[in-house]
Amino acid sequence: MMLTQMIALIAGLLTLSFLPHLPAPWFLLLCLLMALLLVWRQRLPAALFLLGFVWACVCGQWALDDRLNPELDGRTLWLQGKVVGLPEQDGKVIRFQLADAHSRRAALPKLLRLSWYGGPPLAAGETWRLAVRLKRPHALVNPQSFDYELWLLAQGIGGTGTIKAGERLSIGSGIATWRQQIRQRILATPAHDREGALTALVLGDGSGLSTDDWRTLQHTGTIHLMVISGQHIGLLAGLLYGLVAGLARFGYWPAALPWLPCACLSGFAGAIVYGALAGFEVPVQRACVMVGMVLLWRWRFRHLGVLLPLLSAMLVILLWQPLASLQPGFWLSFGAAGLLMLVFNGRLGRLSGWRSLGRAQWAMTLGLLPLLLGLGLPVSISGPLVNLFAVPLVGLVIVPLALLGTLLLPLPWFGTAVLGLAGGLLELFFRALESIALWFPAWLPAGLPLWAWLLVAIALLLLLAPRGIPGRSLAWFLVLPLFFTKPSLPPEGRARVIMFDVGQGTSVLVQTREHALLYDAGARSPGFDIGERVVLPSLRALGLSELDIMLISHADNDHSGGALAIHQGMTLGQVVSGQPAGLPEELDAQPCTASTWQWNQVRFSTWQWLDAIESNALSCVLMVEAAGERLLLTGDIDVEAERAWVRSWHDWHAQWLMAPHHGSRSSSSQLFIDAVAPHSVLIARGKHNAYGHPHPEVVRRYQQSGATLYDSVEQGAVIIELGSLLPAQGMRKIPRFWREK
The whole model's pTM is what? Predict the structure, then answer.
């Protein structure tokens, strides 16, 4: 009965993850009154479900209400606050969180995430007075990309900003300063250039890992080993528990002290200390709660069954942080714990250590696959085998060495030697992972329809079930949709066009039934490649593994920066550009020429102003026509190039137009707009971009012409079914309660 009530309350709390909109206050009040009535009628499971639902929705609304006031979006204010957590250094950029920010001019969110380009060194716990250009939470929205806006909400961050100037008011103190000092000591210790990885294992600070390191970990399914997670906390707690249990078993434990409560308390104390060292981030909090519940169950409630500690930990976390369910880590951590219970509980016989590890990896590989597919995360092909040696190496050797070396740093040389040994092992570990990742990259399958996902989930759970379960032999047949289900394709004579949301840049996919062309690839900046992080995952999520043509309009970074990542991640038939000499040699780009071709009865035509000199004017222009409906992609051509196009093109009209140069004042002349006469205009830009795109005068000209504007900032990725004569669909319009209105 108690488990039923716990499950009902958890189900109500988890409902928040699936809501497109938060209910109105009157509806929540009605649910609360209904819950009280059900309690009076002794219908506790239903009442607890409603109470959990109400509490989760209220917490979600509080988080939304704590966001930056829309009137302050884009404004610069002087404010004061305290640096929390460890600041992240990325080249010349420092990123950190500011708590308890306040300004005399306006009310501010409790927590801000700020960036300081070229700023001075900052330390945790310091108080600063800063001039900040504030921004409301906003994220790129694409078929497949990290939802930064959701992440900010789940972390309790109500706004972001860029620092213009600042002054330190006071230095830090307490545990935050202690963690900062430890990080500086570790980074100053020679460890075979793996000091950043050591800070990740000891302090949970992953900023020292390079982009290549993260990519390697993702391809090999070992990210969980390099961020402090439940596995690290659990291993340390287990080692301390085992130490006390071993002493008691061999007669070395004082008889006056009961060994079991001491073992449980020692394990929990170790988890708390390690959690404090890691800064008690949300995943670490979750891990400490789970470890605490398991140890409490082992001490006093073992007779109630193994499901109790898992449900208790989930319930405590959701009551404390209902928005935790919005993060993939929540589902993956509890999914992993539940799978381990499924494959080890109630099985006959004892397994050796290696066989147990093998069974655990088999369970993780199959059991977590539905979660990875549902969350849109990459699936590591090599992960199951890699983790067979990686888990014991990192968890039982490198992490203890790193913690021991950190503890012994006050000694003149011993701590340095131990950290150096841990760093050397990490260097060998990463070299092995890099070789494996090169041969077996991660797999990002195309999105499955719900029916196919359900069949695959049922099949994989059946495969993990004990032998003798009815229907287990049919499981392999139920897995087949994973390999044979493909995303829908445009019909013959039509094209699907997706203007990806890439911030201040351009990237457009044009897909026919059997072919695909990518027009531009977004920008690349230090530490963030749009081609790698946004465009490539979206292409794979759409079921594409190769492109017939990648057409880079010209060599400016906001159009060509991501091209190399696309080249490395997909098979390309041909690369064409208006400025081939300005692109990396690996692309082997061919010059843009006036040409026309057809794919599946869809016509493509390219054009370039031959007399152009300046980079923008050299842009390769593409016209696509499907069933009489046209789309014109213009790169960054300016007014002079527009005039040349009007003079040389034989038929100007196009229903869809991508505004030249992101809506810059130097483009979109009245002559050009009148010639094209579009009914809809696409504007690809970044929010609060430094160039002021689109210019108000340009917007006014398009509006006066009667065109409908599709702005990537307001619409996210825009999807057009060219040839259907239907309006475009903006992905930001898909209901999500955390999306900015």
Answer: 0.87
